[in-house]
Specification:
The complex is a heterodimer of chains A (about 240) and B (about 230).
Chain A: E1 29-33, E2 41-47, E3 50-61, E4 74-81, H1 96-110, E5 121-131, H2 136-150, E6 160-167, E7 170-173, H3 177-182, E8 185-192, E9 197-201, E10 204-205, H4 209-238
Parallel strand pairs in A: 4-5
Antiparallel strand pairs in A: 1-2, 2-3, 3-5, 6-7, 6-8, 8-9, 8-10
Helix pairs in contact in A: 2-4
Chain B: E1 12-13, E2 18-21, E3 26-27, E4 31-34, E5 37-40, E6 44-49, E7 52-57, E8 69-77, E9 81-85, E10 92-95, H1 108-111, E11 117-125, E12 131-134, E13 142-143, E14 147-150, H2 156-160, H3 165-174, E15 177-181, E16 185-189, H4 192-208, H5 214-228
Parallel strand pairs in B: 3-7, 10-12
Antiparallel strand pairs in B: 1-6, 2-5, 4-5, 6-7, 8-9, 8-11, 9-10, 11-12, 11-13, 14-16, 15-16
Chain lengths: ~240, ~230
């Protein structure tokens, strides 16, 4: 898939992308915290045409008992794409891709949540993708981070999910659907904006070391912008009297 | 936790935010020290008191501690014990030996059934979060009347006030018997109007607690009541 399709033109002659963005420009992002009143914490992230909703429940007693850890909490993540999230109906239920993304997200969140505070417990994170247009794992992890903060779960930092990639031998930030499908590489990353650490990194396709450096530069820049929107969303909920 | 708040000028912090230098200060709850800085680990209001920097969390789970007074709900009944929902991560266990009655083996359900509400005390919490409750003690009993109002645990201290001053004023203004459980549940027993007024006041505290003091909310309710009379 990521070998590139030579006949698909993804960059215009003036160097801009098909949707008019510059190479280092992100799709519009908006975040709302506390969207689900029944959950302990929740958030909705709209990233371009992606819509991700995350709900957090817990900490609660971990069931079944075999998943309990005596010295820490486990984070149970379920990532799911709604059947109506894309033009081709998605068959409901777990599949290979959703299992992979759930696992990657859980391991990323475990690296920031102070899990040692809650032995034998479970923190349940449900991520539902209501609309998908490339970059759902990043939107999902951003939503999960805000929802965890909203639930009052102690964390070292919040994780921001961002992605860069390569189209027509050009490194671009935040691939849309056409760029993801017909591009040459995709580099989704989970970034801790305050410390600059990386919680997860996946690469699909090939990037040279120089292209990788540029992609990561774009990712860090975007992560800082999204982090500001995350903080604003939480402040708006509690400080601005919106909630 | 939050009693005696000065007023509106508080800073909301989010996890990972650097909240200032750690020089000469101590890290309280919701704060970790990293190199020379303090980092917030929870979403909440930053507070500095007695040289200790801490975060008053906006949401927090109840973590039981030995000696806590809790309003518990019977969740399961076995032959010789009850499992109680204490609004925490784990259920509490009330063995028949720590119940206030003489209970025969197999007759636990005759004394308390699922859904009953009790006032109990946390007897013991071990490192694995096993919680043992007791109902042996002055005032610990089954609550047969009244209503239970949930209150986020971070607001409990604010609701009580210094030396229970706020709680006593609330009791007086609502003409109610009120017991505050550390686990984020408040038991209110009064006339229907009294229960409604107490609930309204508590909900205002939860909604506005970070912007104003409970003292001013109580004064407002008291003056409204006098006006009605």
């Amino acid at each position: 898939m990521m070998g590139g399709y030579g006949d698909v033109k993804l960059l215009k002659d003036d160097g801009s992308r098909l949707d008019g963005r510059k190479v280092d420009e992100m799709r519009p992002v908006s975040i709302q915290a506390g969207v689900l009143p029944a959950a302990d914490g929740s958030a909705m992230v709209t990233h371009g045409l992606n819509v991700a909703v995350a709900a957090v429940y817990g900490p609660m007693e971990a069931h079944p008992r075999k998943i309990q850890r005596q010295d820490r909490a486990v984070i149970d993540v379920r990532y799911n794409m709604a059947p109506f999230s894309t033009s081709d109906r998605i068959r409901p239920g777990f599949n290979r891709r959703s299992r992979e993304i759930s696992k990657v997200t859980a391991e990323s969140l475990e690296s920031v949540v102070l899990v040692e505070r809650y032995p034998r417990s479970k923190i349940r994170v449900e991520i539902e993708i209501l609309a998908a247009e490339a970059g759902t794992r990043c939107a999902g992890i951003t939503a999960a981070s805000v929802a965890l903060a909203d639930a009052g779960i102690p964390m070292r930092d919040m994780i921001v999910g961002v992605a860069s990639g390569k189209i027509e031998d050009t490194v671009v930030l935040d691939l849309d659907k056409a760029e993801d499908n017909y591009g040459q590489a995709d580099l989704p990353v989970g970034i801790l904006p305050n410390t600059g650490e990386i919680a997860f990194l996946q690469m699909d396709g090939d990037l040279s070391p120089e292209e990788y450096e540029l992609a990561m530069e774009y990712n860090f820049k975007a992560a800082n912008e999204i982090h500001e929107i995350m903080v604003e969303a939480l402040q708006r909920r509690y400080d601005g009297g919106e909630a | 936790m939050s009693q005696g708040q000065a007023g509106a000028e508080q800073r909301l912090v989010t996890p990972g935010m650097t909240v200032g230098s750690s020089a000469g200060k101590r890290a309280g709850s919701g704060i970790i020290a990293k190199e020379n800085d303090f980092i917030a680990t929870q979403l909440g209001w930053l507070r500095e008191r007695n040289n200790t920097v801490s975060v008053d969390p906006i949401n927090a789970a109840y973590m039981p501690r030995s000696g806590d007074l809790v309003v518990a709900v019977v969740a399961e009944v076995r032959n010789n014990l009850w499992f109680m929902d204490i609004n925490g991560s784990f259920q509490g266990l009330l063995p028949m030996s720590l119940a206030p009655w003489k209970v025969e083996f197999g007759a636990a359900r005759q004394h308390m059934d699922v859904g009953n509400v009790v006032l109990a005390r946390v007897q013991e919490v071990d490192e694995c979060h096993n919680v043992v409750l007791t109902m042996k003690g002055v005032g610990l009993r089954r609550l047969n009347q009244g209503a239970v109002e949930p209150v986020p645990v971070q607001h409990i201290d604010r609701l009580r006030g210094e030396n229970n001053a706020h709680l006593q004023r609330l009791r007086d203004v609502c003409d109610a018997r009120i017991m505050v459980g550390e686990n984020g549940r408040v038991w209110i027993d009064a006339s229907l109007d009294g229960i409604a007024l107490a609930r309204k006041t508590i909900r205002r505290l939860v909604a506005e607690g970070h912007m104003t003091t409970f003292d001013s909310i109580l004064s407002d309710i008291e003056s409204n009541k006098k006006g009605d009379a």
